[in-house]
Design goal:
Shape: extended
Structural class: mainly alpha
Strand order of the largest sheet: 1-2
Strand content: under 5%
Number of strands: 2
Largest sheet: 2 strands, antiparallel
Distance between the termini: 89 Å
Amino acid sequence: GSVEMSADILGTLRNHGLDLSCIAAHWTAGYDVVKNVNEFQPNFATVGFVVSYVVVALCFPILLGLALYAVWSLAKLGPARKTFSTILIVGFGVPLYPILAFLTLAIFWIILGVVTLGVAVALPMFCAAILIIQLRGELSVFVDHQREMNQEDELVVEYITFVQLFFGIVMGCLSFCTFGVLAMALTLLKSPLVLGSCVVHGVRHSLPAFTESGNWCPLVFLVWCFAFVGGCIVVILGILVSMLVKLVAAGLWPAYVFKVGCAVMGGRRRNDVGLCAPVRESLKAGYQVLWASDLLTNACITMRFDLLKQSCEEFGQMAVGLRSDLSPECRAVACLPAVTIGLLQGWDITAESLARQLCVPKLSVTDAWDSFAREMKRVGREALDTGVLTEDFALSVPPELIIGLPARVLLDTVERSSGPDIVLASGLRLTEAFRPKTDFAKMVWREMQTAMAVRASADLPHDARTALCGALLAGGGDPEELPEGLAAAVRAFESMGPPWKEPCDGIYRALIAVSLECSRQSIFKSKLEEVLQALTKDDPAEALLTSEPDSFSDDDGSSSESEPASP
């Protein structure tokens, strides 16, 4: 009955297109391939044993001569004892040395072979199990996070239509068949030059090892020969891998750029978006893969491996929108002209996305950022003029100032705003209905609302506000490491008593939390560093952006409130 049942199961599987005999035949063919490879490739344990035994046998005359030389060099032994020792060494050493060497090496290589075989069998299974467990844990965390985001009513989802998706796939396929093939052909044509340059670079940097090896020079040369052959194989494999990577990148990068272009220009669920700009930028992305291939191979040929590493890092920054093009020193290596993808300029994407969420023109978002930068410059310059900051401290771009300067400007934003709305220096108003809805933006909104509520309930006197401004500008830094004027303001804040200590602490914690989170954003940090570097420039036009006095320079005893700077 079991035989008939097995036959029925095999017949059912064969009727559904699953022939186990075919699978077994393929398995047997694969096993035969592995068996043929093992027969072609020598066993490393056997080869190691034979080579090591031959080396040990060839070393026996030298070791015997050294042993006899050491015996006859002993000062406390007479000729008779030296002769007797020589007879013992020759009589027992000559017959026992080959046998002991054979047994020792055989045991060593058998153990090494068994251990290597065990590692070859167990290591892949262990690594696969660890990888699956790790991926499962990461996937579980990711899925839980996505479920939490789906349950939020304020979630902003960027959509592209199926038509746009189809055109993106088409652009990727076209680039794959054109720019990808050209990049592969270019890499193949330059591969001999790349291999030669890498060989020359490796030889030039390994020659000092021979001069420093001394009597070990023959052994070092033997190791160098193995390293040379292995290095050439690695370079050749690297060239082949780079060809495949460029081919794949030529298909994925233009499709990704097309998708970003549609998302940036299209907004949410809009079908009236033209495809000209995304198609144009996608073609630029395809050409950019070819240009990058030319740049990287030229960096290898000219042996500028420092530029090769820098270019790879900058390409990664371009992929995530942190920069629009490479640095001039990297672009100078390429023979082909460079091209910039306009849709992937990091700040442009951020501004475009914010403008859509706020339902305002992109220019309003750009003006808001420019006004915020002007406010930071104004506060920084007034702190320099009044001695609260020093030029050396500002030029060093310390973390305290990266956190403190935006926090100090945010205090003006809190005092400028009324109710739940946040009014920026440019006049742009953020409301509950029209504001960014990312996790970062929600955190900023929550902390700003906390600071606004505390500030509205406390009518701070001039001294308390001045101390609060100094503590915010210090960014949580140690007073011992701050300029004297700023350290004095921090100490005044720390020694503040009731009833103003509690509300000032609440405002301080909220604004420092916002500024600290902002400093972790790459785009914000890069622009903030430009602001800090511009603080010490002698530019009257920038120094007099506004005429409102800051709280550090009030003379009439009343607290000042910064008015919006005109765009």
